[in-house]
Amino acid sequence: MAVEGSKPTGERDPKYIAQINLILKGFGRDVEVFPAKWQSTGADYLYHAGFVLLRDEDVERVIRLFEGGTTSEGGIAGVTRLKLPAKVPPGAPEDASPTQRFLKYADLRLGRGVVTPEHLFYVVPSVSPCPATEPEEIEAKEPKPYIDDKTTTGKGVKVVVLDVGWSPAPSAGWLDGVTGELESAFDSAGLIKPYAGHGTFIAGVLRSMARETEVVVQSYFTTAGAIWEFDLAAALDEVLDLAPDIISLSAGTRTRFDLPPLGLDVFIETRLNRVNGLVLVAAAGNESTRDYFWPAAFPETVGVGALDEAETARAGFSNFGSWVDVYAPGENLINAFLTGEYHCTEPPHTGEVRKFAEMARWSGTSFATPLVAGLIAGRMSRTGENALQAADGLLAFALGQAITGVGPVLKPGDALNSTP
Prior knowledge:
The chain has helices at residues 14-27, 38-41, 59-66, 98-110, 198-209, 229-239, 262-270, 365-383, 387-400, 414-417, and strands at residues 31-34, 45-55, 70-71, 79-83, 116-122, 158-163, 179-180, 214-219, 226-228, 246-249, 279-283, 302-307, 326-329, 333-343, 353-362. By secondary structure, it is an alpha/beta fold. The strands form 3 sheets. It has a 7-stranded parallel sheet with strand order 7-8-6-10-11-12-13, sandwiched between helices. Strands 1, 2, 3, 4, 5 and 9 form a 6-stranded antiparallel sheet that branches. β3 and β4 (79-83) form a beta hairpin. α8 (365-383) packs across α9. It starts with 13 loop residues before the first helix and ends with a helix.
């Protein structure tokens, strides 16, 4: 488990710094990085400057302790976003950031975890990246991997993807019938944005495993491919109105002291666990660390790590540890993307021009995640199980074909192979 202030992943990595700078550009002064000297030491997490989260029952005593504070509207019942007062209480520990001073003061007086930062969750390469690489040009016209099995099509199964939205790829027939909210994919110069195409690629991977699954891609990660924790909990709650069988979330973050993010903890306790058979499948992240990555690390979710292209070992970028439930192919997958020109933003390819025509090659636990979601959907259509039952069956099968030094493994076609 990481200790706050310890050396995080990504120390002095130019690519890593470029990824975080994209987030900072998108959110401006609203976002801060811990630790403050992250460019030389690496970053633990990003958080909302001037705000904290706490459970509803703690609001009164925290406001008394802080000698002020204003609650925000929205969110979900059970968790409160508190805007911090301008003045730090006397006796609060010293720190460069006022927000961190309030957090440390609450730790001393109330204990760790009562008051937490409002973390920033990402679907893009950043402090806790989901895609391990930028999309790459490819001449292929067919997805890879792809399963064409008439008994594991996902028919009758509904999957909701929380992402940046999506863009139809007319020639990608396996995406026919996918719905959702359109993304803002191009900048003012007509170039593909750094975060665009992520939801489209994910929908394509899912459909490549279970061709008839009903897939709805929602657009929540609209600013720099990220969303505040409080708003993500509300988004997940809103998605329940669509009555999905499976929620696919290729996003996450590390947290202060590796504690479960409070907003999502409340969502899981009071919402997810109250819906019979519903499964949340989440990406394990791409930092090549065993530190917890949330929400994949919650025991109630299916946390997905990535296998390498040969499907014989863990992908070098994938997070790992006992909290990762299963590993699936996530390196050099080929699927639907946008059409247009993209300028790379990450070293060593910064400024490189890539031209896409509806297809791309991409790597990351972001894409291993919908592959597993698709396998669950495929098994459901074959067995009649609900999503939770199908997930449990697949995870039991995955344990039986575990790779030494990696863990349980699922591969394309296992929706058929794993059924009774």
